[in-house]
Amino acid sequence: MIPPTSAKAVVETGPMRHARAGHTAIRTQDGGVMVTGGADGVLAWDPVHGSRQGSVNATLNSAERYDPTSGTWALLAPMRTARSGHGMAVLPSGESIAIGGDDGTGASQRSVERYDPASDTWTAAGSMTDPRFSFGTVTLGNGDVFVCGGNHLRDGQGHVLDGAERYDAGDGLWHRAAPMRHARMNHTATLLLSGMVLVVGGYRGTDAVATATVEIYDPVRDTWRDALSLPRGRMQHTATRLRSGKVLITGGAFAPFDPGIASSIVYDPATDRWEPAVEMAYGRVAHSTSLLVSGRVLVAGNASIGDPVPARTTEIYDPDTGRWEIGVDLPEPRFTHSATLLDDGDLLLAGGRLPVSHPVALCTAALYRE
């Protein structure tokens, strides 16, 4: 770990209209940022046992848009269904879709809705075959939206999925894809330069620890193949495709409700090999990673319940040296926030929760500037 080598800054920007965490954020074609769903209120969280008893927490159907020019947020028409742990994607038409998620009633959703920014309206966009939340979402090279895995929650019981589906942006219909070789949730799904999809780690629901399995989906042939497994399983990590085409995996946990891990590792799809990387200064889970305009990667936040210091920090990975440096601290600690790169190169960090014994949702937002 080395100290900062270039000037950086984090500045506060306008707060969201609703406090929220576990929401989804996308950059729209007009350069703004749209956030949907998530949950507000206070989460009663036992980091050892994962208990949520005593939570005062509501899943949201609200949506809002950030205007980078004015630094302000405006409410959009609400979704038809409240969602958290859902997926979002921008379609070639400029419309966007909200996919699945947990509606807060103890059941996963298969419903999908489509947002038209011209009319500020949501309409039904068909349904997936399987209800799911905490799944992987990728926009393929042809504009179709691909989802895989996740948790089918019903009657308070989870069922981890191996199923995959794709939304055809042309006909507006969902189509079954070949199932994964391994059921998983809380994994990552990353579009490679080849147009294939890399799926890493996650939780199978049948073991006490995270899975180390890795697989690659070919959308042209609709087939999966195993890739080289991780040295050790992890879940709730992040994956960032670097300019070289390699994929940086950071943080996560070795098992449900474990503390965050500091290790990072790089996958090279050209050789199907994992390359060890220098550890981060802090173990991190429920953090964000973002590829900056410079080609470096910013890591921010952490679910370090009871210890706000790691959740306030940022770290920067330099692919040229394979090393991490300490970044500028955030105005306030946070986790389960969103991080979205703007057209001007600023990174918008919005919402999340404070890492206190009863984590409260945040409405605040900040801009990271290189």
From TrEMBL:
Keyword Transmembrane helix: no
EC identifiers of the protein: 5.1.3.24
InterPro entries associated with the record: Gal_Oxase/kelch_b-propeller, Gal_Oxidase_central_sf, Kelch_1
Entry GO MF terms: isomerase activity
Top-level taxon: Bacteria
Alphabetized Gene3D superfamilies for the sequence: Galactose oxidase/kelch, beta-propeller
Keywords associated with the record: Isomerase, Kelch repeat, Repeat
The UniProt record lists the keyword Repeat: yes
Alphabetical list of SMART domains matching this protein: Kelch
Name of the molecule in the record: N-acetylneuraminate epimerase
Name of the gene encoding the protein in the UniProt record: nanM
